[in-house]
Amino acid sequence: MKALLWAAGMAALLLVTMVLPAEYGIDWTGAGRLLGLTSMGERKVAAAKAARAVPAPVAVAIPKDAAPAAHSMASAIAMRTDSVEVPLAPRGEVEYKVVLAEGEGVVYEWDAGSGKVTFDFHGEPAAGPQGAFLSFEKGKGSKGAGTLKAPFAGTHGWYWRNDSTVPIVIRLRVAGFHTTLKKM
Questions:
Q1: Collapsed DSSP state (helix, strand, coil) of residue 165
Q2: Against a cut of 0.70, is the pTM above it?
Q3: Going edge to edge, which strands form the sheet with 134-141?
Q4: CA 115 – CA 160 distance, rounded (Å)
Q5: Cα-flanking dihedrals φ and ψ of residue 93, to 5°?
Q6: How far is C-alpha 107 from the chain's CA centre?
Q7: What pLDDT is attached to residue 38?
């Protein structure tokens, strides 16, 4: 009986001075802090709380009749990549366009280096009223990048104007299913 009481007392002492501070950050006696166990337990508790706070991934049911065409597209046109340096004089302006069929896409990137230009990324339908166009993005900046899925057949591209008094060189890269990249 004596040995049993002695063992239970030692287990309780170890529980209070070592296990609770090291595992749960609970330190009633201060021994855990002296031994450096309390901070370890506090970190474990914080990590467990953070793990519980992260939401579990949500499963999304995809209908069997979901239209794959909305998420991918095939093209009869060969993919091509074009890269061009476009010099732009002070107060100068220029337009570069790709020719796209309706639904075809391109990925583009342009960079004017340290220069800043006024730009208008837009498209002009091949069939339609003279002078009709649709702007996708316009503003002032030194670079732009993105993708375009042509809403109509026609020319799609960039107008740049150099409002500064120093020449600028714009580097334009286009990859996709266009037939031509040309200066307008």
A1: coil
A2: no
A3: 134-141, 117-125, 154-161, 93-100, 180-183
A4: 12
A5: -145, 155
A6: 15
A7: 83
